[in-house]
Structure formats: C-alpha cells, structure tokens
Amino acid sequence: PRCESFCDSSWTEIDREMDALCETAKAADGGRLVIWDWYELSPEVIAQFNERYPDLKIETQGLTYNLSSAIVSAKATGARNTDVISGSLVSAATMTDEGYWADVDWAAFGVPEEFLTIGAPEMLPDSVNGSLMQVNTDEAQAPTTLDGLLDPQYAGKVSVARYNANVFAGYGLAEGEDAMPGLIDQPKSSGNLQVLEDQDAPLSSGDVPIALGQTLFNPNPSLSVQPYQDAGVFAQFSGVNVDAKNPAGAMLWAAG
User: Is 84 exposed, middle or buried (0-12, 13-18, 19+ CB in 10 A)?
Assistant: First the structure.
C-alpha cells in the first residue's frame, strides 16, 4: 500500500520535474554524465536510463574502496570529477565529513519527506541492500550461516575482500560485539577464509568457490548467490557531487 500510494501521489510530480531537469542536463558539459561508483555500471542499467534520457552520455568507472580518494583527488587537481556520489552511511563517510554531498532539496522534486529521514537531507535513499554469499556450484555448496564456514570441508574455499568486513556486521549485532572478531579470526587462522583483492577470478575458476560479498557481472552460469543468517542490511544513498559539472544530470540519475 505504501508503494502504491507513493506511485499514485508522488511519481507524476517527480516525472514532471525530471522532464524539465533533462533539458538543463543536456546542455551541461555537452550532455556528458560521469558516474563513479564502487562497481562499474552494467550496460543494461545504462541502457535503461538512456531509454528515458537518450541524449545523456554516461561514462562509468568502478573504483571499489578507492572511490572516495579518487573523488577528493579529482577535486584537488581540477580533473573531471564524478557528477554522482553514492554509498552507505559507512562507505560514504568521507564524502559526508568533507562536505561533498551537494545541498539538493529532494522534497522540492516531489520526493516525500518521509523518505528523507535517514542520513543527511541531501542524501537520497535509493535502495536497501544486504550481503550475500556467491557460490561456484560446480565446486561447493555454501552453508546457510557464517558459523557453518568453520567446517573443515571449507578449507581454502572461502574469500572476503579486504574492504568488505561489513559482511560480518549483522552477526556482531545478533551475537554480540565480541563475537564478531572471533568469527573472523577462526576461519582465517584455520585457513578456511582468505582475504583477497580479487575474488572474481578464483570464484569463477572454482579455486576459491565461495565469496562473501558478491562480485558483479560475471557471466559464468555456475555462479549462484544465496542469503545467509544474520546478514547485515543497510541503506544506500545517491546524490550530487559538489564538484559536479553536470549537477542536473546527477539529479536525474539519483532520482530516476
């Protein structure tokens, strides 16, 4: 009912505002819209956006944990920066602390005030996310709990990215703060869990067939994802970079 009410009462107004904003975006920087994120945007996502806004040309990069430093560096050097900034309250903390979220009144575009009560007002909530296990099903079957990864059958078969310790946060909330470091230390010391910079290649080959925190855009049909007990859930936000060359385009992306 809440979603139906939002669509009926708010989306028509948002859509009208977006049409006007598009004209401004087309004239800014030749219609170029630069979007840096943790992961490069998929062609399917870009194509869907361009169905609605065909005159905007998207350039995308995936920078993972280097995202914030790349944005700060671009502003300091005068290089072309991302127009859009995004992240969770944790991953975007640097952007928040350093004042990189442009002051946009999203309510003026028709976004209901009730959607703007998490985070700073200029941060537009765009999704709710949770952690998953990604599994190469040709080589392994994943357990349904993080505790299950302590089983000796998973020796050398599990990976996590260095920047992705938040996959254990839900366990800490459920079992207590002291329990979380122990859960991380035990599979690491036993050799079950490996900390990898690149999870994708060993996951796809089956050398390390279980990845905590999923990788993206891998065409291997043997890869599957599954939820696990006590996985954390977090809100994700989008907004406009104060250093944007096409702020109107960034608003379209964030709200569209």
Answer: buried
CA angle 223, 182, 188 (to 5 degrees): 50
Which tokens in the block code for residue 37? 């994120």
- Burial (CB < 10 A; 0-12, 13-18, 19+), residue 208, is buried
Closest CA relative to residue 132, chosen from 45, 12, 234, 34: 234
pLDDT digits (tens, 9 = 90+) for 98-139: 899 999 998 888 788 888 888 888 899 888 888 899 999 999
- Tell me how far the alpha carbon of residue 98 is from its chain's centroid: 20
What is the DSSP-derived secondary structure letter of residue 101? B
Report the distance separating Cα 103 and Cα 122, nearest Å.
5
Distance CA 117, CA 96 (A): 16
Spell out the residues 6+ positions from residue 181 whose beta carbon is closer than 8 angstroms to its own. none
Q: Give the C-alpha separation, 234 to 214, whole Å.
A: 15
Residue pLDDT, tens place only, 197-252? 889 999 999 999 999 986 666 788 999 999 999 998 888 899 999 999 999 999 99
Q: Of 82, 58, 87, 84, nearest to 71 (Cα)?
A: 82
- The amino acid at residue 126 is D
pTM beyond cutoff 0.85: no
Number of Cβ within a 10 Å radius of residue 37: 18
Tell me if residue 57 falls in helix, strand or coil: strand
What is the C-alpha to C-alpha distance for residues 173 and 150, in angstroms, rounded to an integer?
19
